[in-house]
Amino acid sequence: MPLAEIQTALARLFTDADARESFGREPGAAGRALGLDDSDARALASLAPHALEDFAASLNAKRALDARKLLALTAQAFGPAFGPRLRAVLDGSPRGAAADALALIASLSNDGAVSAPWAVDVARYEAAFIEMGRRRWGFLVRRFAYPAPVIAVALGRGETFAAIAPRAALAFWARAPGGRLMHRYWPIGRVRIAPHSRNG
Amino acid sequence: MAAAVAAAVEAEAIEVKAQAAQGFLGVGLGYRPSFRADLFANRERVDFLEITADHFFDARREKLDELDLLAAHFPLIPHGLDLSLGSADGVDGAYLDKFAALVERLDPPWWSEHIAFTRAGGIAIGHLACLPYTNEAIDVLASNVERVRRAIATPLILENVTASFVMPGAEMDEAEFVTRALAATGCGWLCDVTNIYTNAFNQGRDLEAEIDGWPWERAVQAHFAGGRLARDGRLIDSHDRPTPPEALRLLANLARRGALCGAILERDEDLPPFGDLLDELDRARATLGLR
Predict the structure, then answer these.
(1) How far apart are the first and last CA of chain A?
(2) pLDDT at residue B165, as a whole number
(3) Which residues lie across from B52 on neighbouring strands?
(4) Which among A143, A172, B40, B227 would be 20 to 30 A from B169, CA to CA?
Protein backbone atom coordinates (compact mmCIF):
# COMPACT_ATOMS: atom_id res chain seq x y z
CA MET A 1 0.00 0.00 0.00
CA PRO A 2 2.07 2.99 -1.24
CA LEU A 3 2.02 5.84 1.27
CA ALA A 4 1.43 8.68 -1.19
CA GLU A 5 -1.64 7.04 -2.73
CA ILE A 6 -3.15 5.98 0.55
CA GLN A 7 -2.63 9.42 2.12
CA THR A 8 -4.22 11.17 -0.84
CA ALA A 9 -7.18 8.79 -0.77
CA LEU A 10 -7.59 9.25 2.98
CA ALA A 11 -7.40 13.03 2.69
CA ARG A 12 -10.27 12.91 0.19
CA LEU A 13 -12.26 10.50 2.29
CA PHE A 14 -11.77 12.55 5.45
CA THR A 15 -12.91 15.78 3.84
CA ASP A 16 -15.43 14.81 1.15
CA ALA A 17 -18.77 13.36 2.25
CA ASP A 18 -19.67 12.29 -1.29
CA ALA A 19 -16.41 10.38 -1.67
CA ARG A 20 -17.06 8.60 1.63
CA GLU A 21 -20.56 7.69 0.61
CA SER A 22 -19.36 6.29 -2.74
CA PHE A 23 -16.55 4.39 -1.06
CA GLY A 24 -18.89 2.89 1.52
CA ARG A 25 -21.27 1.78 -1.22
CA GLU A 26 -18.75 0.45 -3.72
CA PRO A 27 -15.17 0.38 -2.40
CA GLY A 28 -13.62 -1.08 -5.56
CA ALA A 29 -14.86 1.48 -8.07
CA ALA A 30 -14.66 4.41 -5.66
CA GLY A 31 -11.20 3.30 -4.56
CA ARG A 32 -9.99 3.26 -8.16
CA ALA A 33 -11.37 6.77 -8.60
CA LEU A 34 -9.31 7.74 -5.55
CA GLY A 35 -6.15 6.26 -7.06
CA LEU A 36 -6.14 2.98 -5.13
CA ASP A 37 -5.72 -0.45 -6.65
CA ASP A 38 -8.23 -3.15 -5.76
CA SER A 39 -6.23 -4.69 -2.92
CA ASP A 40 -5.57 -1.29 -1.31
CA ALA A 41 -9.23 -0.39 -1.65
CA ARG A 42 -10.22 -3.70 -0.05
CA ALA A 43 -7.75 -3.11 2.79
CA LEU A 44 -9.15 0.34 3.42
CA ALA A 45 -12.68 -0.97 3.22
CA SER A 46 -11.79 -3.49 5.94
CA LEU A 47 -11.66 -0.69 8.49
CA ALA A 48 -14.46 -0.61 11.02
CA PRO A 49 -17.61 0.55 9.19
CA HIS A 50 -17.80 3.90 10.91
CA ALA A 51 -14.07 4.65 11.21
CA LEU A 52 -13.90 7.09 8.33
CA GLU A 53 -17.20 8.73 9.24
CA ASP A 54 -16.13 9.09 12.86
CA PHE A 55 -12.85 10.72 11.91
CA ALA A 56 -14.57 13.03 9.41
CA ALA A 57 -17.11 13.97 12.08
CA SER A 58 -14.34 14.77 14.54
CA LEU A 59 -12.68 16.98 11.91
CA ASN A 60 -15.90 18.89 11.32
CA ALA A 61 -16.51 19.23 15.04
CA LYS A 62 -13.04 20.71 15.49
CA ARG A 63 -13.60 23.01 12.55
CA ALA A 64 -16.87 24.23 13.98
CA LEU A 65 -15.29 24.76 17.38
CA ASP A 66 -12.43 26.80 15.90
CA ALA A 67 -14.83 28.99 13.90
CA ARG A 68 -17.12 29.43 16.90
CA LYS A 69 -14.19 30.72 18.96
CA LEU A 70 -13.75 33.52 16.43
CA LEU A 71 -17.45 34.33 16.48
CA ALA A 72 -18.24 34.33 20.18
CA LEU A 73 -20.56 37.35 19.95
CA THR A 74 -22.31 36.10 16.83
CA ALA A 75 -22.88 32.76 18.54
CA GLN A 76 -24.45 34.58 21.48
CA ALA A 77 -26.56 36.75 19.20
CA PHE A 78 -27.95 33.82 17.22
CA GLY A 79 -28.32 31.46 20.16
CA PRO A 80 -29.32 27.87 19.29
CA ALA A 81 -29.62 28.75 15.60
CA PHE A 82 -25.88 29.38 15.39
CA GLY A 83 -24.65 25.77 15.41
CA PRO A 84 -26.79 24.49 12.50
CA ARG A 85 -26.04 27.61 10.46
CA LEU A 86 -22.31 27.13 11.02
CA ARG A 87 -22.37 23.43 10.17
CA ALA A 88 -24.19 24.25 6.95
CA VAL A 89 -21.20 26.20 5.61
CA LEU A 90 -18.56 23.65 6.66
CA ASP A 91 -18.08 21.64 3.54
CA GLY A 92 -15.10 20.35 1.64
CA SER A 93 -11.45 20.70 2.56
CA PRO A 94 -10.73 22.86 5.61
CA ARG A 95 -9.75 26.39 4.68
CA GLY A 96 -8.95 27.79 8.12
CA ALA A 97 -11.13 29.01 10.97
CA ALA A 98 -11.19 32.62 9.79
CA ALA A 99 -12.34 31.63 6.31
CA ASP A 100 -15.02 29.36 7.78
CA ALA A 101 -16.18 32.18 10.04
CA LEU A 102 -16.34 34.65 7.17
CA ALA A 103 -18.23 32.14 5.02
CA LEU A 104 -20.85 31.89 7.75
CA ILE A 105 -21.14 35.66 8.02
CA ALA A 106 -21.56 35.93 4.25
CA SER A 107 -24.30 33.32 4.39
CA LEU A 108 -26.07 35.14 7.25
CA SER A 109 -25.72 38.52 5.60
CA ASN A 110 -27.30 37.23 2.40
CA ASP A 111 -30.20 35.56 4.18
CA GLY A 112 -33.18 37.88 4.19
CA ALA A 113 -35.14 35.44 6.34
CA VAL A 114 -33.06 35.80 9.50
CA SER A 115 -35.50 36.51 12.33
CA ALA A 116 -33.21 38.88 14.26
CA PRO A 117 -31.71 41.40 11.83
CA TRP A 118 -29.72 43.06 14.62
CA ALA A 119 -27.88 39.74 15.09
CA VAL A 120 -26.74 39.91 11.47
CA ASP A 121 -25.23 43.30 12.19
CA VAL A 122 -23.41 41.87 15.21
CA ALA A 123 -22.07 39.14 12.93
CA ARG A 124 -20.93 41.72 10.34
CA TYR A 125 -19.31 43.75 13.10
CA GLU A 126 -17.41 40.73 14.42
CA ALA A 127 -16.46 39.73 10.87
CA ALA A 128 -14.81 43.11 10.30
CA PHE A 129 -12.37 42.36 13.15
CA ILE A 130 -11.58 38.96 11.65
CA GLU A 131 -11.04 40.50 8.25
CA MET A 132 -8.75 43.19 9.61
CA GLY A 133 -6.91 40.56 11.64
CA ARG A 134 -5.87 38.97 8.37
CA ARG A 135 -4.68 42.17 6.72
CA ARG A 136 -1.20 43.59 7.01
CA TRP A 137 -2.57 47.06 6.40
CA GLY A 138 -5.65 48.81 5.11
CA PHE A 139 -8.96 50.09 6.35
CA LEU A 140 -12.61 49.11 6.47
CA VAL A 141 -15.74 51.18 6.85
CA ARG A 142 -19.05 49.53 7.71
CA ARG A 143 -22.48 51.01 8.13
CA PHE A 144 -24.90 49.19 10.40
CA ALA A 145 -28.67 49.50 10.59
CA TYR A 146 -28.52 48.54 14.27
CA PRO A 147 -26.05 49.80 16.89
CA ALA A 148 -23.81 46.75 16.44
CA PRO A 149 -20.84 48.05 18.49
CA VAL A 150 -23.09 48.80 21.48
CA ILE A 151 -24.87 45.46 21.19
CA ALA A 152 -21.51 43.70 20.95
CA VAL A 153 -20.34 45.28 24.21
CA ALA A 154 -23.60 44.31 25.90
CA LEU A 155 -23.33 40.73 24.63
CA GLY A 156 -19.74 40.64 25.87
CA ARG A 157 -21.10 41.44 29.32
CA GLY A 158 -23.51 38.55 29.00
CA GLU A 159 -26.60 40.69 28.62
CA THR A 160 -29.64 39.50 26.67
CA PHE A 161 -32.30 41.57 24.96
CA ALA A 162 -35.98 41.49 24.19
CA ALA A 163 -35.84 43.85 21.24
CA ILE A 164 -33.54 46.38 19.69
CA ALA A 165 -34.74 49.35 17.70
CA PRO A 166 -32.90 50.10 14.47
CA ARG A 167 -30.42 52.96 14.91
CA ALA A 168 -27.65 53.40 12.42
CA ALA A 169 -23.99 53.26 13.36
CA LEU A 170 -20.83 53.82 11.38
CA ALA A 171 -17.67 51.90 12.21
CA PHE A 172 -14.12 52.30 10.99
CA TRP A 173 -11.10 50.00 11.24
CA ALA A 174 -7.58 50.87 10.09
CA ARG A 175 -4.13 49.35 10.29
CA ALA A 176 -0.90 51.01 9.14
CA PRO A 177 1.76 48.62 7.78
CA GLY A 178 3.19 46.75 10.77
CA GLY A 179 0.94 48.70 13.12
CA ARG A 180 -1.80 47.89 15.60
CA LEU A 181 -5.45 47.80 14.66
CA MET A 182 -7.32 51.05 15.24
CA HIS A 183 -11.11 51.04 15.59
CA ARG A 184 -13.73 53.77 16.04
CA TYR A 185 -17.49 53.86 15.75
CA TRP A 186 -20.09 56.55 15.70
CA PRO A 187 -23.67 55.83 16.71
CA ILE A 188 -26.11 57.84 14.66
CA GLY A 189 -29.02 58.77 16.86
CA ARG A 190 -29.96 57.47 20.33
CA VAL A 191 -29.58 53.77 21.08
CA ARG A 192 -32.58 51.97 22.55
CA ILE A 193 -32.20 48.44 23.86
CA ALA A 194 -34.85 46.61 25.84
CA PRO A 195 -32.89 44.36 28.19
CA HIS A 196 -33.40 41.02 29.96
CA SER A 197 -34.55 38.52 27.40
CA ARG A 198 -33.36 37.56 23.97
CA ASN A 199 -35.72 37.68 21.08
CA GLY A 200 -35.99 38.94 17.56
CA MET B 1 17.80 4.98 4.22
CA ALA B 2 16.28 5.28 7.67
CA ALA B 3 19.39 3.77 9.23
CA ALA B 4 21.64 6.19 7.40
CA VAL B 5 19.60 9.15 8.50
CA ALA B 6 19.59 7.85 12.04
CA ALA B 7 23.35 7.62 12.09
CA ALA B 8 23.76 11.04 10.58
CA VAL B 9 21.52 12.78 13.04
CA GLU B 10 22.08 10.81 16.20
CA ALA B 11 24.22 13.68 17.37
CA GLU B 12 21.19 15.89 17.44
CA ALA B 13 19.34 13.63 19.84
CA ILE B 14 22.32 13.85 22.12
CA GLU B 15 22.30 17.59 21.68
CA VAL B 16 18.65 17.73 22.73
CA LYS B 17 19.46 15.88 25.91
CA ALA B 18 22.53 17.93 26.63
CA GLN B 19 20.81 21.22 26.04
CA ALA B 20 17.78 20.26 28.02
CA ALA B 21 19.92 18.92 30.82
CA GLN B 22 21.16 22.44 31.40
CA GLY B 23 17.87 23.13 33.06
CA PHE B 24 14.68 21.28 33.77
CA LEU B 25 11.96 23.67 32.60
CA GLY B 26 9.43 22.31 35.03
CA VAL B 27 5.68 21.91 34.64
CA GLY B 28 3.72 24.36 32.55
CA LEU B 29 0.70 25.05 30.43
CA GLY B 30 -0.25 25.06 26.81
CA TYR B 31 -0.94 28.77 26.37
CA ARG B 32 -4.48 29.85 25.50
CA PRO B 33 -5.30 33.55 25.23
CA SER B 34 -8.50 33.11 27.23
CA PHE B 35 -6.56 32.64 30.48
CA ARG B 36 -3.87 35.23 29.86
CA ALA B 37 -4.90 37.52 32.73
CA ASP B 38 -5.04 34.62 35.22
CA LEU B 39 -1.72 33.35 33.92
CA PHE B 40 0.07 36.59 34.68
CA ALA B 41 -1.61 36.86 38.05
CA ASN B 42 -0.21 33.41 38.94
CA ARG B 43 3.00 33.31 36.98
CA GLU B 44 5.09 31.95 39.84
CA ARG B 45 3.04 28.72 39.66
CA VAL B 46 3.56 28.13 35.94
CA ASP B 47 7.13 27.17 35.05
CA PHE B 48 6.96 27.50 31.28
CA LEU B 49 4.54 27.75 28.38
CA GLU B 50 4.03 25.92 25.16
CA ILE B 51 2.63 28.10 22.40
CA THR B 52 0.86 26.91 19.29
CA ALA B 53 3.29 28.06 16.63
CA ASP B 54 0.64 28.33 13.92
CA HIS B 55 -1.15 31.07 15.87
CA PHE B 56 1.86 33.33 15.45
CA PHE B 57 2.60 32.83 11.77
CA ASP B 58 1.95 35.95 9.67
CA ALA B 59 1.14 37.57 13.00
CA ARG B 60 -0.15 41.10 13.16
CA ARG B 61 1.27 43.59 15.61
CA GLU B 62 -1.17 42.62 18.38
CA LYS B 63 -0.12 38.96 18.28
CA LEU B 64 3.58 39.82 18.16
CA ASP B 65 3.16 42.09 21.18
CA GLU B 66 1.40 39.21 22.94
CA LEU B 67 4.25 36.88 22.03
CA ASP B 68 6.87 39.32 23.28
CA LEU B 69 4.98 39.76 26.53
CA LEU B 70 4.84 36.00 27.07
CA ALA B 71 8.51 35.60 26.18
CA ALA B 72 9.45 38.28 28.69
CA HIS B 73 7.92 36.29 31.53
CA PHE B 74 8.10 32.59 30.62
CA PRO B 75 10.33 30.18 28.73
CA LEU B 76 8.38 29.44 25.54
CA ILE B 77 8.36 26.23 23.52
CA PRO B 78 6.81 26.48 20.03
CA HIS B 79 4.58 23.54 19.14
CA GLY B 80 3.46 23.07 15.53
CA LEU B 81 0.27 21.55 14.18
CA ASP B 82 0.49 21.57 10.41
CA LEU B 83 4.03 20.86 9.25
CA SER B 84 2.79 17.44 8.16
CA LEU B 85 6.07 15.67 8.72
CA GLY B 86 4.56 12.36 7.68
CA SER B 87 3.39 13.51 4.24
CA ALA B 88 4.69 11.52 1.32
CA ASP B 89 4.34 14.79 -0.63
CA GLY B 90 7.02 16.38 1.58
CA VAL B 91 6.68 19.43 3.79
CA ASP B 92 5.31 22.78 2.70
CA GLY B 93 8.25 25.14 2.15
CA ALA B 94 6.31 28.32 2.91
CA TYR B 95 4.99 26.87 6.16
CA LEU B 96 8.48 25.72 7.11
CA ASP B 97 9.88 29.20 6.49
CA LYS B 98 7.30 30.70 8.84
CA PHE B 99 8.15 28.12 11.48
CA ALA B 100 11.86 28.82 11.08
CA ALA B 101 11.28 32.56 11.54
CA LEU B 102 9.31 31.95 14.73
CA VAL B 103 11.93 29.61 16.18
CA GLU B 104 14.64 32.15 15.37
CA ARG B 105 12.63 34.88 17.11
CA LEU B 106 12.11 32.82 20.28
CA ASP B 107 15.38 30.89 20.40
CA PRO B 108 13.85 28.02 22.45
CA PRO B 109 15.85 25.02 23.72
CA TRP B 110 13.72 22.81 21.42
CA TRP B 111 10.53 22.90 19.36
CA SER B 112 8.00 20.22 18.60
CA GLU B 113 5.73 18.70 15.98
CA HIS B 114 3.76 15.49 15.47
CA ILE B 115 4.35 12.07 13.99
CA ALA B 116 1.42 12.54 11.65
CA PHE B 117 0.25 13.97 8.37
CA THR B 118 -2.18 16.83 7.84
CA ARG B 119 -1.97 17.27 4.05
CA ALA B 120 -1.90 14.96 1.07
CA GLY B 121 -2.54 15.27 -2.65
CA GLY B 122 -3.08 19.00 -2.34
CA ILE B 123 -5.78 18.55 0.32
CA ALA B 124 -5.47 20.10 3.75
CA ILE B 125 -7.12 17.78 6.25
CA GLY B 126 -7.13 20.39 9.00
CA HIS B 127 -6.19 17.96 11.74
CA LEU B 128 -3.57 15.37 12.65
CA ALA B 129 -4.02 12.06 10.86
CA CYS B 130 -2.18 8.99 12.06
CA LEU B 131 0.47 7.40 9.86
CA PRO B 132 0.35 3.72 8.96
CA TYR B 133 2.81 1.82 11.12
CA THR B 134 5.09 0.92 8.23
CA ASN B 135 8.75 1.22 7.33
CA GLU B 136 7.86 3.43 4.37
CA ALA B 137 6.13 5.91 6.67
CA ILE B 138 9.24 6.01 8.87
CA ASP B 139 11.45 6.65 5.83
CA VAL B 140 9.19 9.48 4.69
CA LEU B 141 9.20 10.99 8.16
CA ALA B 142 13.00 10.78 8.37
CA SER B 143 13.40 12.37 4.97
CA ASN B 144 11.07 15.25 5.86
CA VAL B 145 12.77 15.81 9.21
CA GLU B 146 16.09 15.94 7.41
CA ARG B 147 14.77 18.73 5.19
CA VAL B 148 13.34 20.57 8.18
CA ARG B 149 16.69 20.40 9.93
CA ARG B 150 18.31 22.28 7.10
CA ALA B 151 15.93 25.16 7.80
CA ILE B 152 15.80 25.01 11.61
CA ALA B 153 18.90 24.14 13.56
CA THR B 154 17.18 24.15 16.94
CA PRO B 155 16.47 20.56 18.07
CA LEU B 156 13.10 19.14 17.06
CA ILE B 157 11.16 16.70 19.23
CA LEU B 158 8.29 14.59 17.90
CA GLU B 159 4.96 13.79 19.52
CA ASN B 160 2.98 10.55 19.36
CA VAL B 161 -0.64 11.16 18.34
CA THR B 162 -4.03 9.56 18.88
CA ALA B 163 -5.25 7.16 16.24
CA SER B 164 -8.95 7.11 15.44
CA PHE B 165 -8.25 3.81 13.73
CA VAL B 166 -5.21 1.73 12.88
CA MET B 167 -4.40 1.74 9.19
CA PRO B 168 -4.42 -1.66 7.49
CA GLY B 169 -1.06 -3.05 6.49
CA ALA B 170 0.72 -2.22 9.75
CA GLU B 171 4.18 -3.79 9.95
CA MET B 172 4.63 -3.09 13.66
CA ASP B 173 2.70 -1.91 16.68
CA GLU B 174 2.45 1.70 17.79
CA ALA B 175 5.19 1.54 20.43
CA GLU B 176 7.67 0.03 17.98
CA PHE B 177 6.64 2.53 15.31
CA VAL B 178 7.31 5.50 17.60
CA THR B 179 10.56 3.97 18.81
CA ARG B 180 11.83 3.38 15.30
CA ALA B 181 10.58 6.75 14.04
CA LEU B 182 12.51 8.56 16.76
CA ALA B 183 15.62 6.48 16.05
CA ALA B 184 15.38 7.10 12.31
CA THR B 185 14.95 10.84 12.69
CA GLY B 186 17.31 11.24 15.63
CA CYS B 187 14.69 13.34 17.38
CA GLY B 188 13.80 13.44 21.04
CA TRP B 189 10.31 12.43 22.10
CA LEU B 190 7.44 14.64 23.09
CA CYS B 191 5.65 11.91 24.99
CA ASP B 192 1.93 12.53 25.17
CA VAL B 193 0.94 10.17 27.95
CA THR B 194 -2.75 10.82 27.38
CA ASN B 195 -2.46 9.85 23.72
CA ILE B 196 -0.78 6.59 24.70
CA TYR B 197 -3.55 5.86 27.18
CA THR B 198 -6.31 6.92 24.74
CA ASN B 199 -5.08 4.65 21.94
CA ALA B 200 -4.64 1.71 24.31
CA PHE B 201 -8.13 2.24 25.74
CA ASN B 202 -9.81 2.54 22.35
CA GLN B 203 -7.96 -0.40 20.85
CA GLY B 204 -8.41 -2.61 23.90
CA ARG B 205 -4.66 -2.96 24.45
CA ASP B 206 -3.03 -3.77 27.77
CA LEU B 207 -0.77 -0.84 28.61
CA GLU B 208 1.03 -2.72 31.35
CA ALA B 209 1.96 -5.51 28.97
CA GLU B 210 3.52 -3.15 26.45
CA ILE B 211 5.09 -0.68 28.86
CA ASP B 212 8.67 -1.75 28.09
CA GLY B 213 8.14 -1.26 24.37
CA TRP B 214 8.02 2.53 24.50
CA PRO B 215 11.18 4.64 24.08
CA TRP B 216 11.01 6.33 27.50
CA GLU B 217 14.72 7.11 27.44
CA ARG B 218 14.22 9.44 24.45
CA ALA B 219 11.59 11.59 26.16
CA VAL B 220 12.44 15.27 26.44
CA GLN B 221 9.01 16.70 27.17
CA ALA B 222 5.61 15.34 28.14
CA HIS B 223 2.03 16.33 27.41
CA PHE B 224 -0.77 15.42 29.76
CA ALA B 225 -4.48 16.15 29.43
CA GLY B 226 -7.91 14.65 29.91
CA GLY B 227 -10.54 13.63 27.41
CA ARG B 228 -14.14 12.53 27.50
CA LEU B 229 -16.02 9.39 26.66
CA ALA B 230 -18.08 9.48 23.48
CA ARG B 231 -21.54 7.96 23.37
CA ASP B 232 -20.13 4.90 21.62
CA GLY B 233 -17.70 4.30 24.48
CA ARG B 234 -14.59 5.59 22.73
CA LEU B 235 -12.28 7.94 24.58
CA ILE B 236 -11.82 11.26 22.79
CA ASP B 237 -8.64 13.28 23.16
CA SER B 238 -10.65 16.44 23.72
CA HIS B 239 -8.44 18.25 26.23
CA ASP B 240 -11.51 19.25 28.21
CA ARG B 241 -11.24 17.19 31.39
CA PRO B 242 -8.70 16.73 34.19
CA THR B 243 -5.92 14.26 33.44
CA PRO B 244 -7.06 10.69 34.26
CA PRO B 245 -5.10 8.61 36.79
CA GLU B 246 -4.00 6.17 34.05
CA ALA B 247 -2.21 8.99 32.19
CA LEU B 248 -0.66 10.27 35.41
CA ARG B 249 0.68 6.77 36.09
CA LEU B 250 2.38 6.90 32.68
CA LEU B 251 3.79 10.30 33.60
CA ALA B 252 5.23 8.81 36.78
CA ASN B 253 6.69 5.97 34.75
CA LEU B 254 8.22 8.50 32.38
CA ALA B 255 9.81 10.34 35.27
CA ARG B 256 11.35 7.10 36.53
CA ARG B 257 12.66 5.90 33.18
CA GLY B 258 13.41 9.02 31.18
CA ALA B 259 15.32 12.24 31.57
CA LEU B 260 12.31 14.47 31.22
CA CYS B 261 12.98 18.19 30.85
CA GLY B 262 9.46 19.52 31.08
CA ALA B 263 5.78 18.63 31.11
CA ILE B 264 2.86 20.60 29.70
CA LEU B 265 -0.81 20.41 30.66
CA GLU B 266 -3.03 20.79 27.61
CA ARG B 267 -6.47 22.20 28.27
CA ASP B 268 -8.43 23.62 25.35
CA GLU B 269 -12.14 23.43 26.13
CA ASP B 270 -14.48 23.68 29.10
CA LEU B 271 -11.87 25.67 30.93
CA PRO B 272 -12.31 25.36 34.69
CA PRO B 273 -11.41 28.13 37.14
CA PHE B 274 -7.72 28.83 36.65
CA GLY B 275 -6.98 27.63 40.18
CA ASP B 276 -8.06 24.14 39.12
CA LEU B 277 -5.45 24.16 36.35
CA LEU B 278 -2.81 25.31 38.82
CA ASP B 279 -3.80 22.47 41.15
CA GLU B 280 -3.45 20.05 38.24
CA LEU B 281 0.06 21.36 37.61
CA ASP B 282 0.85 20.75 41.28
CA ARG B 283 -0.45 17.19 41.02
CA ALA B 284 1.83 16.65 38.02
CA ARG B 285 4.78 18.05 39.96
CA ALA B 286 4.03 15.61 42.76
CA THR B 287 3.75 12.78 40.22
CA LEU B 288 7.13 13.75 38.80
CA GLY B 289 8.62 13.84 42.29
CA LEU B 290 9.25 17.55 42.19
CA ARG B 291 7.67 18.36 45.55
Answers:
(1) 56
(2) 86
(3) B79
(4) B227
CA dist B186 and B181 (Å) reads 8
What is the C-alpha separation between B133 and B119, in angstroms, rounded? Answer: 18
pLDDT in tens, B89-140: 999 999 999 999 999 999 999 999 999 999 999 999 989 999 999 999 999 9
- Give, in order, the Cα–Cα distances in Å from A103 to each of A54, A67, A77, A127: 24, 10, 17, 10
- Comparing CB atoms, the residue among A3, A54, A59 nearest residue B136 is A3
ipTM score: 0.88
C-alpha dihedral sign at B147, B152, B155, B156: negative
Q: What separation, in Å, do the N-terminal and C-terminal C-alpha atoms of chain B show?
A: 45
Q: Which residues of B touch A10 (CB under 8 A)?
A: 120, 129
Q: Best of B84, B127, B203, B228 to disrupt the A interface by mutation (most A CBs within 10 Å)? A: B127
- Residue A44 to residue B168, Cβ atoms within 8 A: yes
Q: Across the strands, what pairs with B113?
A: B158
Distance CA(B163)–CA(B256), nearest Å, equals: 26
Cβ neighbours of residue B10 closer than 8 Å, sequence gap 6 or more:
B186
* Burial group, residue A160, by CB count within 10 angstroms (0-12, 13-18, 19+): middle
